[in-house]
Design a protein that fits this description.
Number of strands of chain A: 2
Strand order of the largest sheet of chain B: 1-2
Number of helices of chain A: 17
Order of helices and strands of chain A: HHHHHHHHHHEEHHHHHHH
Strand content of chain B: under 5%
Largest interface: A-B, 37 and 34 residues
Radius of gyration of chain B: 26 Å
Mean pLDDT of chain B: 91
Largest sheet of chain A: 2 strands, antiparallel
Distance between the termini of chain A: 18 Å
Strand content of chain A: under 5%
Structural class of chain B: mainly alpha
Order of helices and strands of chain B: HHHHHHHHHHHHEEHHHHHH
Shape of chain A: elongated
Largest sheet of chain B: 2 strands, antiparallel
Oligomer: heterodimer
Helix content of chain A: over 70%
Number of helices of chain B: 18
Helix content of chain B: 55-70%
Number of strands of chain B: 2
């Protein structure tokens, strides 16, 4: 086995595919820095400004009356006026950099938003307010900041924001990247068949060695990418390991940056293994590279394509392939089932991988019994 | 010549290509029948809303009692509502008598008057159509301004139109208008990806049956050039898969006319910019030029990369080119003017030509003519590189 792995290494280190993917990942890391610098990703001031604009538009739907008089003002109207007041306070807090005021206004705002979402005519103004998931994530973040006496970061040129951006992008693209990368995992033997069939090993050993080789390579790629990104971000912005990041995991929680990095890396590793096992099983039956890639894409966008029946298909592993949609609660928003979270995703994905491994194992056994070839 | 036709035959016999074309055919047809034909424009013709607005304002004007103590806003309302209502009434009457030219005229006036009041005047208290103010859109107000100016110019053109007017035309549901709208959103990416995926293996597939290919009495370099040409023609032929969707939509909602107006925006520093009208024919011709140039670039790059690396995977990296522009052209960000010299900045075909990209990023640097130069220079560069590389590589295929 060890010899075989070494052999694969000797063959594949010349393979341009492996060099290209390293180049692509480096390009990705550079572009995340440019993206952060050029845009307004998670800058607080523009967010506060857009909130004010939306709530003013919502206010316009109501006749302008005295909000303190319950006889003429509906509860929703009173609520929106209060929200608008607190949004202005929040904007003021940003201008004069007063954190206590910011926290206080945000807390009150959350209370009002929750209250509004329980009123009858919420549907009419829902478009002008954040979704339930968004506002809960926002709330838990502010609460944790307040509890731990942290300073809120107003701009986006800092370590925690970069980490959020990095894993947001990686979480979206990682499955697809590994899937495309591994989509010819068994096919490329066709290119040098004489070499491959010359190995004095069984089909099973070769397959296992190949899988281990790919998994090792992908793990190495992930580690390199994350490490390079973190080190360059740290040297640019300075390290900050304890700033809270709000995620959805069955419940809304805020975890420190270092936990977020570990959790995300672990999830991405899981995704790599899933992608490679799916590639293997597809390669068994379909000897066309592009068909395999298309099926991967289909699986990745499965949740979007079946959004209407997702209430019944929420347990399928394909719902968990997009990490950034899982941890931000977007999958939960589509399916409406709060099992669509990271922890459950881990379980479903590992079960799915085990099933695939068991299936391949059975196939190999049958093949051996038939004396056939993989 | 026979090699050329053989290449095209192989192109369309390729299982992968057939699958891609089939997927495109089905999805485009589905889109045309179920999505585009029910397109719900924010600025659609909606007599109910107009009537409600008209009644409310007419009611106010009837009952208002102005005196010295009246609020300034009441006075403001009394001064602007009569003219506004005049246009709304004209719109309603035109719709009732089914006189669409008159409707277009009144609507053009309505939009320009509304925009003058909402953007220029006491904008604190007036707002554009509510649907622009969705949660999180900080630019809603200026978005509304853009839409109102575009619509006022659009209806101005309809009022002087020599083609038959329909409600579907006003609601932007005709086939040509759908094409225009898609060119400003996702269609460019679909076309680029389509070219890349269809042509990805034009060179590398020959390695599998080298003996057949080597039978043609041509040098490898000529073969490469013919291959590129054949791929280019095959791509143009492949666009036929979208025709059924176009025809289906045209039969349902009308095709539109080549003299339909397309509104362009020209960035001017420190002003609101300059708006102009071009015809749909000119617009489509300009789009076609961009599509052709991009196809040449993609096929050229595929040839180049295939000679250099002889691996299909490497060609897929070209995808990254399509999204480079997304990194640096973000709304509200600082725009570096030099980036307009990159060919990758000209991916959003429709938005380049209408100038919506300039409006979106609030910068005047990426414009059509500059794009043609950048893309042309890239074509020359890729061509030169192919020439140089093929001279030094021993084995081309």
């Amino acid at each position: 086995m060890k010899n075989l792995l070494k052999n694969f290494y000797l063959i594949e280190r010349k393979n341009i595919k492996f060099k290209a993917i390293v180049g692509l990942l480096l390009f990705f890391v550079i572009s995340t820095f440019i993206y952060l610098e050029k845009g307004e990703f998670r800058k607080l001031e523009p967010i506060a400004a857009s909130d004010v604009m939306s709530i003013n538009a919502a206010l316009e739907r109501y006749q302008n009356v005295d909000a303190s008089d319950p006889a003429v003002a509906t509860p929703m109207y009173q609520n929106i006026v209060e929200q608008s007041r607190n949004l202005t306070r929040r904007q003021l807090a940003l201008t004069i950099a007063d954190q206590d005021l910011y926290v206080d206004a945000s807390m009150k705002l959350h209370g009002l938003r929750v209250e509004a979402s329980q009123l009858e005519d919420y549907e009419e103004i829902a478009a002008f307010m954040p979704s339930e998931t968004e506002m809960n994530l926002d709330y838990i973040f502010i609460q944790t900041i307040d509890e731990q006496d942290k300073t809120i970061l107003l701009e986006n040129d800092n370590f925690p924001t970069y980490i959020i951006l990095l894993f947001f992008m990686l979480g979206f693209g990682w499955y697809i990247l590994v899937a495309v990368f591994s989509s010819d995992i068994l096919l490329d033997e066709d290119n040098h068949r004489s070499v491959v069939s010359g190995y004095p090993y069984t089909e099973a050993t070769k397959l296992v060695a190949k899988t281990i080789f790919y998994v090792l390579v992908v793990i190495a790629l992930l580690m390199i990418t994350v490490t390079v990104a973190i080190i360059s971000a740290g040297s640019k912005f300075g390290f900050d390991w304890t700033y809270p990041i709000a995620i959805f995991n069955g419940d809304y929680v805020a975890i420190p940056v270092w936990q977020f990095i570990i959790l995300s890396s672990a999830y991405l590793l899981m995704l790599s293994i899933v992608a490679i096992s799916v590639s293997i099983i597809l390669n068994y039956y379909i000897r066309n590279l592009y068909f395999v890639i298309f099926i991967h894409f289909f699986l990745f966008f499965f949740i979007q394509l079946t959004a209407e029946i997702s209430g019944y298909t929420w347990f399928l592993p394909f719902n968990y392939l997009n990490y950034s949609a899982v941890y931000s609660g977007r999958i939960r928003d589509i399916t409406g089932v709060s099992f669509n979270n990271i922890t459950f995703g881990f379980m479903v994905l590992s079960l799915f991988t085990l099933l695939i491994v068991a299936f391949i194992y059975m196939r190999l056994k049958w093949n051996k019994a038939d004396g056939g070839e993989v | 010549m026979s090699y050329f036709f053989w290449e095209i035959k192989v192109f369309f016999a390729n299982k992968k290509n057939l699958l891609i074309l089939f997927i495109l055919f089905v999805t485009s047809l589905y889109y045309a029948l179920y999505v585009a034909s029910e397109y719900d424009s924010i600025e659609k013709v909606d007599p109910v809303t107009i009537q409600a607005r008209y009644d409310e304002r007419a009611d106010f004007l009837e009952n208002v009692d102005l005196n010295d103590n009246s609020h300034a806003l009441t006075m403001f309302a009394v001064s602007i509502f009569p003219e506004w209502n005049e246009y709304d009434l004209a719109r309603l009457e035109a719709l009732e008598s089914n006189d669409l030219t008159k409707y277009a005229e009144a609507t053009a006036n309505w939009y320009s008057y509304s925009d003058r009041l909402i953007y220029g005047g006491q904008s604190e208290f007036l707002r554009y159509n509510r649907q622009y103010y969705t949660y999180g859109n900080r630019f809603a107000h200026i978005d509304g301004h853009y839409a109102y100016v575009v619509n006022s110019l659009r209806y101005e053109a309809y009022a002087e139109a020599d083609y038959p007017l329909t409600l579907d035309l006003f609601n932007e549901r005709t086939a040509l208008q759908t094409l225009e709208r898609l060119m400003g959103s996702t269609l460019p990416y679909i076309l680029l990806m389509m070219t890349l995926l269809l042509c990805n293996d034009i060179v590398t597939r020959d390695r599998r049956h080298g003996s057949i290919v080597n039978g043609f009495p041509k040098t490898p370099f000529t073969r490469l050039i013919v291959k590129g040409l054949a791929a280019f023609c095959a791509i143009l032929i492949s666009y036929v898969v979208f025709v059924p969707a176009f025809v289906a939509l045209g039969l349902m909602r009308g095709f539109g006319s080549l003299s339909l107006p397309v509104i362009t925006y020209e960035y001017e520093f420190l002003t609101l910019g300059h708006y102009d009208t071009m015809t749909m024919g000119t617009y489509l011709a300009q789009i076609l030029l961009l599509v052709v140039m991009w196809n040449i670039i993609i096929i050229g790059l595929i040839l180049l990369l295939s000679i250099l690396f002889k691996n299909e995977f490497i060609n897929l990296i070209i995808v990254a080119m399509f999204f480079i522009e997304k990194i640096h052209y973000q709304r509200g960000g600082l725009i570096d003017e030099q980036l307009a010299y990159l060919p990758t900045s000209y991916v959003q075909f429709g938005n380049i030509i209408t100038g919506y990209l300039n409006f979106y990023i609030d910068n005047g640097s990426p414009v059509y003519t500059k794009g043609l130069m950048a893309l042309g220079a890239t074509i020359v560069l890729v061509g030169l590189l192919i020439g140089i590389v093929s001279r030094f590589k021993r084995k081309l295929v």
